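=== RUN LOG ===
request id: a7f3
mode: sequence -> structure
chains: 1
length: 352
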Amino acid sequence: MAHSKISSWLLIVQLFFMLLTKSNAKVPAIIVFGDSSVDPGNNNHIETIARSNFMPYGRDFAGGRPTGRFSNGRITTDFISEAAGLKQTVPAYLDPAYNISDFAFGVSFASAGTGYDNATADVLGVIPLWKELEYYKEYQKKLRAYLGDTKANEVISEALYATSLGTNDFLENYYTMPQRRSQYTIDQYQAFLVGIAKNFITNLYNLGARKISLGGLPPMGCMPLERTRNIGNGNECMESYNIVAVNFNEKLSGLVMELNKELPGIQVVLSNPYDPLLQMIKNPSSYGFEVASVACCATGLFEMGYACARYNLLTCKDANKYIFWDAFHPTEKTDRIIADHVVKTALSKFLA
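=== RESULT ===
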């Protein structure tokens, strides 16, 4: 009898906390597609050199462990998940340490080094965007088996879908490899990418997604790697690349308006990191940073991935003083500021 009462009491407590969690969450899940800016470790489980599952990556993550995030700690989508009242991190779909009970609250299909263009994924042999979508379809089947059709459909339609893509299409593909430059002018290539983005969002919509955040490009000419290459201009930001980022973001803004008109019930927003990141770079001290032009890792000029060696004595001691962690990716502190910005602006309609 006493055992029965205890079991009943535990069940009531469990239900109470489930309801509490539900009431605090603004959306039931966050579902992520994209590149290294939002990859929490999918690339750990494929054959590619585009990895970061080793120190010093992750040294400021909980437990001081590398996860595959291209950061010293958490990344933007982790902070957005936390702001939504969900978990503090969004797990990688290919990580066997997690299963559908974890993914029901958030999952990332992102792959470092990928882009809208399939040819971009081919450069480093990573997961192309179409394959990320196939993984999502597989996820939907698992979710329905786990939650039942009714509850799963509710999660699918109410979840926040976040994408972050495009930087690699320009820096890793268009400006580095000859094929696309021989086929397209830079404006034509942007239009080509926007067309892929439209098809991708439309496919998501047809699969049940309704709340979608389309990620804009950062001021990619100000990444330490691009500044290092800009020797002739005193290692200042590569303004031509920043202009491309601004133009592409304008095209994405037009796409957002187009999709909201064309697809009944969809809510698409543009989460644009360009202005907040540029403001940090121009006025680092206003945000508590000391260094904007080079990264924390190694010399801070060109290193990322395996070039960020564990024992490099030049790697900074305090990443919070730096805007960039490696020559291509922001520090955890920078990502937190960007996430806070997009939560208060673009995502406020979903998370208020």
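=== NOTES ===
Confidence is low (pLDDT under 50) at residues 1-7, 10-23.
The first strand starts at residue 30 and ends at 34.
=== END ===
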